[in-house]
Amino acid sequence: MKSPPPRDSPAASSRKPRVAWLPAHPTEGTLSMLRHWRELEQTAREHPLPDVDIFCPLGAAPPPRPIASRFIRAWYKYFAYPRIAAGLRDVDIVHVLDHSFAHVLRGVPAGVRKIVTVHDLAPLEDHSLTPVQEARFRKTLGWLRVADLLLCDSTYTASRVREFVGAGAPIEVLLMGVNSESFRQERPFPPDLPLPPYPRILSVGSCIPRKNLQVVPAILREVVAQSGPVSLLRVGEPLPPELRAAITQILPAERLVEYGRASDEDLASIYQASDVLVFPSTLEGFGLPLIEAMAAGCAVVSSRSSSLPEVGGEAALYFDARNPDEAAARIIEILEQPALRESLRRRGRERVSDLSWENHWRKTADIYRAARA
User: Fold this and answer.
1) Which of 256, 101, 114 is nearest to 194 (CA)?
2) What DSSP character marks residue 99?
3) What b-and-e string marks burial along 222-244, b requiring 16 or more CB atoms within 10 Å of the CB?
4) Which residues, in sequence order, are bridge partners of residue 303?
5) Mapping DSSP to helix (H, G, I), strand (E, B) and coil, where does residue 266 land?
6) Helical residues (DSSP H) of the chain, grouped into ranges
7) What is the pLDDT of residues 222-259, one digit of tens each?
8) CA–CA separation, 347 and 368 (whole Å)
9) What's the whole-model pTM score?
10) If we measure between CA atoms, which residue out of 338, 344, 349 comes closest to residue 198?
């Protein structure tokens, strides 16, 4: 492919902006970040824009894969990736798709516009890092201050980022998207996966402390006491043994099913087979499971913490993350009031109609045009 003219030439001023994407390296194994890269890439391919030229030095987004060793991740993150960034001389814009790679901005050639997507600052807010890890993360995030523009997944995240960077780079909010068609498409439940009886409560995500899964046994205990037997479906990393033991003291073992890291197709089927998603997290930069569940027609009960009310809007029921009884009451309302459940499903699908990846891509392209102008 022929190289574009230098950025300061007369021909360059009239050509379409050339943008390099620098996502999180696949060795990191961060599922939500890989999803963002994969969905954005697929949408840009399906809806090409004649006046924006996109390329990624890493090639196509890969499927999810196991996290690589610390040595391999460090080599790519701190040696290979900065060298790639330093070689991007024939582009107008470098867009770092994951804030945890903001350090590569130090090598971006002069004159190239720099954009970073900041998904969250959760590791600083939940104090989950060791002092050494926190210092390294803060050093990486310090490079956000040299960016020309920061894109944040939510207003909540934008407020946290503003506190961190001070009066530095401009900040815009750009909500994430969901592949509504994929999650809405009706499909038979995979025959190789177990499916316990109704009613079915779904939990999706990791088991890190801020996901607040420790309240799940108390929620289930109250639901069972007031509404009768339920089943719990679980997608994500395996539950810690002590949490699983606490749940199986409330539910028969056959009513707790852990699917692990489900494929996108299986995840859509699991959402569709569930009555309600319960999401008790105390801290989220966005909260993709909320809009995935809504797209699949699954009612949502979420904590009202951080960005979650902003994401769910009026299409979810909310509870105080510290109050499992309130969460149980919201779940019982959905299980015992079919009209409410159907109303939430309808409102959920209306909510995600605006949160498509196509809309996300077109707004991103508008940002590129403005940055190039």
Assistant:
1) 256
2) G
3) bbeeeeeebbbbbbbeebeeeeb
4) 319
5) helix
6) 10-14, 31-46, 70-75, 81-86, 122-125, 131-142, 155-165, 180-184, 216-227, 241-248, 264-272, 288-296, 308-312, 324-336, 338-353, 357-372
7) 999 999 999 999 999 999 999 999 999 999 999 999 99
8) 32
9) 0.91
10) 338
